[in-house]
Amino acid sequence: MKIVTICGAGIGASAILKVNAEKALSALGLTAEVVAADVASVRDVSDDANVILTSQEFVDAIGETYAEVIVIRNHFDQGEITAAVDRALGEH
Amino acid sequence: MPLPPLPDTAVVLGASASSWRDALGLAGGALVTSGATTPAYTDAMIGMVEEHGPYIVISPGLAFAHARPGAAVLRDGLSVVTLASPVTFGHPHNDPVRVVLGLAVAGVGTHLESIGEIANLFNDPGVTGRLASAASADEVRQIMGASA
After folding, report:
1. What is the DSSP pairing of strand B77-87 with strand B11-15?
2. With an 8 Å Cβ cutoff, are A76 and B119 in contact?
3. ipTM of this complex prediction, to 2 decimal places
4. A16, B50, B115, B130: which one has the fewest Cβ atoms less than 10 Å from its Cβ?
């Protein structure tokens, strides 16, 4: 499984999301690759992604994708991020 | 210490900003004054918001200002600006901003340690409020676990 996190520069907000998504995976006992990238390279990195975590501002630019796009409001809210990862990748 | 240093010159407390541009200008100015960046980096941080919108307001009350690594970054750097009056960035959920965190990274790859520290720090939802009411650069460093 693969999670892609997207922001403007690929090093700030998306890196925060990557770190917190990795904590979420660990808490949920799931394994996935997590890649942070800027919105300009979303096509290159998300071909095989299951989930894209991002801010509302990038949803239109991400456009059509097979991945489930999930908007995170508070990038530091571990509860919000863990719930999103669980909803997308957990066994239900 | 994985966080970049936070000297007194990189901390601006109780500042007045009339717009999000002013607020980012202060965070960028503190990076310049502390020797981490050139003024071009400040323009690049403002340019990110002009291009993509207020996504840098990544949690309630906090703007995480940064741009890409490049010639304008002299060394890894961090700056903290607290605002006397909160400023609206236009974010649908996390406005208004009381604290601006400026980050400059000299190269991609090595910065993930710093990002990890920042994530751990702000996973505590009380940290932004404590920074907003900090009275000295020492107090800011203490809250963040940063060195001068």
Report:
1. parallel
2. yes
3. 0.92
4. B50
